[in-house]
Design goal:
432 residues, alpha/beta, Lyase, Ornithine Decarboxylase, Chain A, domain 1, TIM Barrel, eight-stranded parallel β-barrel, 12 helices, 21 strands, 27% helix, binds pyridoxal-5'-phosphate
Length: 432
């Protein structure tokens, strides 16, 4: 599942001790395993092998250039949502012709950039957007490849903030409207209708919602593919990962799911979906983010203080919600382990950051090994939607990122220096 494990009492990433990285680079520190990234990509790629397919890594999950380069080297494409992400792919040596461009709010500038770059396809999320893409393409004397993102109105049974495929969500075009939208789009001279796309949500731990969505959309895509000579159907991302190992053993709850089952694997996903998709005869795109990088990264933090109040044992660490916002934002669970394994009875603890918000916590009332000032903890499964959501709240510098491969390691993003945080700011003359 991933390459973080104890060797003796010390936590290792592949063949590098995490403690040695902390000594060299300090904390808070993101550490990524290149082998885990590659392994997860390969597992998905292999599971989809019976289909003509392209795995397009959703770089919103982790856009570090070294992570992107790992995917480039494996032949992957990319699911992007901004000009910035397209430029990142280019900076990492990626081929923009293997990029799809999603998002509900593409600006004219972004569309122009993507068109000039020759991306594989725009995944359009509204009719006004299709008209805008057509207008920009006409101005540039180009033909824009487009797909419509269909909203199949299927509940992904995941956290409300990462459900995207129901009519409560802003994403895509309602299933019932899609045919009409294609008919009108086919009259726009500077568009080429290249395919259809969907994405119903993130962190799905069961195949059923994927299956329901594919079964619902298949007749539509079959009909449209014939009519408009489609090349591809994108089934989006959303494959969930194990955050809590107890989940995988069936003991824990995942949000409201009453009884968590063994988590979805690429093979079980493919066993259900490949037979449905194969007869379509189209290229199948998939847009995984979390599955590839989630368990490939950890966030390492130093214990600054242990504070016992009347009720609680607070472990105050040097990482905070500005480094990893998932617990505050989504009530997410991250397993927390010490860099040096120790015996002794666990202590019920809240691990909290230094930010002035009550929401700045990583866990509450969790039995954890007894730790003291100067000890280090690792928050596991922090490789997706971790660093990419970091901010400078409380004027805190963003963490460094390190990539490990075997016994090698390299800083792939330097720790921010504090003056960088106000480098673009100025005080107007009248205040001086
Ligand atoms: C259109 C689209 N594709 C793919 C993804 C990646 O999702 P995940 O990281 O759950 O695989 C997202 C995530 O928000 C998305 O919006």
């Amino acid at each position: 599942m991933h390459d973080f494990r104890y060797v003796g009492s010390k936590l290792y990433c592949e063949r590098v001790s995490v403690e040695s990285l902390v000594k060299r680079h300090g904390t808070p520190l993101y550490v990524y395993s290149q082998h885990t990234l590659a392994d997860h990509f390969a597992k998905l790629d292999a599971a989809l092998a019976p289909l003509d397919h392209l795995v397009c890594f959703a770089l919103k999950a982790n856009s570090n250039l070294a992570v992107l380069r790992t995917i480039v080297n494996l032949g992957g494409g990319f699911d992007t949502v901004s000009e910035g992400e397209l430029r990142r792919v280019k900076a990492a040596g990626g081929d923009l012709r293997k990029c799809v461009f999603a998002g509900v709010g593409k600006t004219e500038c972004e569309i122009e950039f993507a068109l000039r770059a020759g991306i594989y396809c725009f995944n359009a999320e509204s009719e006004p957007e299709l008209r805008r893409i057509n207008k920009v393409a006409a101005r540039l004397k180009k033909i824009a490849p487009v797909a419509v993102r269909v909203n199949p109105n299927i509940d992904a049974h995941t956290h409300a903030k990462i459900t995207t495929g129901t009519y409560e969500n802003k994403f895509g075009i309602a299933f019932e409207q899609v045919e009409g939208v294609y008919a009108r789009a086919s009259r726009l001279k500077n568009l080429r209708l290249r395919g259809l796309q969907m994405h119903i949500g993130s962190q799905l731990t069961e195949v059923k919602p994927f299956e329901l969505a594919v079964k619902k959309v298949l007749p539509l895509v079959t009909k449209l593919a014939r009519k408009y000579d489609f090349e591809f159907f994108s089934i989006g991302g959303g494959l969930g990962i194990v955050y809590d190992p107890a989940l995988d053993s069936g003991d824990a709850k995942w949000w409201e799911q009453p009884k968590a089952k063994k988590i979805l694997t690429p093979q079980s996903y493919a066993n259900t979906l490949v037979p449905l998709l194969k007869p379509l005869g189209l290229k199948i795109l998939m847009e995984p983010g979390r599955f590839i990088c989630g368990n490939a990264g950890i966030l390492v933090t130093r214990v600054e203080y242990v504070k016992r109040t009347g009720k609680k044992n607070f472990v105050i660490v040097d990482a905070a919600m500005n480094d990893l916002i998932r617990p505050a934002f989504y009530d997410s669970y991250h397993q927390i382990v010490p860099l040096t394994k120790q015996g002794g009875a666990p202590v019920s603890s809240d691990v909290v950051g230094p930010i002035c918000e009550s929401g700045d916590y990583f866990c509450k009332n969790r039995p954890l090994p007894k730790v003291g000032e100067g000890d280090h903890l690792a928050l596991l499964s922090a490789g997706a939607y971790g660093f990419v959501m970091a901010s400078n709240y409380n004027t805190r510098a963003q963490a460094a990122e390190v990539l490990v491969s075997g016994n090698k390691s390299a800083v792939v993003r330097a720790r921010q220096e504090l003056p960088e945080l106000w480098a673009g700011e100025s005080v107007p003359k009248w205040l001086k």
